[in-house]
Amino acid sequence: MGKEKGLIEIRIAGLNEGVYTYTFTFHASDFVNPDLSEPELCNEIRASVVLNKTDNDITADIETTTVAELSCDICLAPLKRTLTGQYRVFFVFGDPVSDIDEHEENYRVLDRNTVSVDLTEDVRETLLLSKPMKTVCIDNPECSMYLDSTDRAPDNESDAKSPWKESLAKLKNKYH
Length: 176
Ligand SMILES: [Zn+2]
Known about the structure:
The chain is an alpha+beta fold. It has helices spanning 120-129, 141-160, 163-175; strands spanning 9-11, 18-26, 45-53, 57-71, 78-93, 107-110, 116-118. A hairpin with a 3-residue loop joins strand 3 and strand 4.
């Protein structure tokens, strides 16, 4: 199966209808899966899970928060960023029914006798998805200067000393 189990597990047996909040604190190294053992995620991670239980289903709202140790994509300066991720999982009691799309990953069918739900894999995914695609430092004048000059450089060059313009000029001189 290769799925993570056990780190974020919530006992639902005997739980009455209502809203329950659970908070977990852990480190990326607590996961068995190596995906999270990245140096950026070395600080403490908090995950809160809000369970909303009715007679027929359970909605689990996951929120993860951690301070990631990133570096700027442009100047490579170290940056700390607070990452927040959110994900919702629906659990429905009963037999698998046709109106639930099996491909909907966040829809799961629970047996009435289920003792606990395991959200370890969902929390891990939420955390991974909260990582930004791009990281650029703000309030660093040196970094933005570098950004501006690289933006302008290609234009200046093509105006000034483009090889084909030079040879065009030479051609014109020949025939006039
Ligand atoms: Zn930068």
